Amino acid sequence: MSDGPSLSDFMRHLQAILEESEEIGDRTDRESRQLQIESAIQEAIIFGNRFRELKDHGINPLHFVKQNSRDDAPQHVSKIETLNIGQSVCSGCGNQLENDLDFCASCGEKR
Prior knowledge:
This protein has helices spanning 7-20, 27-56, 79-83. By secondary structure, the protein is mostly helical.
């Protein structure tokens, strides 16, 4: 594990500077700074949630793929595609199969 600050530490820091931003006298500057900090907080929350989702699905969230050339660039995988990794799809209707059922909940097709 890292010796540096954690994501929780970073988020607490952002909350503290958000409170401090109330002291900025100029309304436009204050609102601009608060928007920046609130955006950073949202990104930290999204990152934390994404990290946990990947880890829960057995995917190393810190694994980076080195690009060999422009032609071999890995395709972007959406959040939904990542969550669906390892899940089965019904051969009858194409809907996602429930892991605990031996048939499709949508059309009744057997696995």
